Amino acid sequence: MALRMRLIEDRDREECAAEMGVTVGNFDVILHRASKAFRKKYPPR
Questions:
Q1: Is 4 helix (H, G, I), strand (E, B) or coil?
Q2: H or E stretch at 25
Q3: What own/partner pairs with CB < 8 Å and gap ≥ 24 does 3-11 have?
Q4: Cβ–Cβ contacts within 10 Å for residue 36, how many?
């Protein structure tokens, strides 16, 4: 959800955090963890 809102829908961090019901700092952590999990699941070729 974090990756979709931030990267695909191009929403700002504050809007994403508000929709998810978390602080901006917490959203940054969620986004970082989601990015890390995505890179692990789909490594570069």
A1: helix
A2: helix 24-41
A3: 3/31, 3/34, 3/35, 3/38, 6/31
A4: 10
- Provide DSSP, 6-22: IIIS---HHHHHHHHTS
Query: Tokens 């974090």 identify what position?
Result: 2
For residues 39 and 16, give the distance between their C-alpha atoms in angstroms, rounded to a whole number: 21
d(CA 11, CA 7): 8
Q: How high is the pLDDT of residue 45?
A: 84
What is the average pLDDT across 16-25?
97
At 21-36, the pLDDT tens digits run 999 999 999 999 999 9
Collapsed DSSP state (helix, strand, coil) of residue 45: coil
- The structure tokens listed for 37 are 């999990």
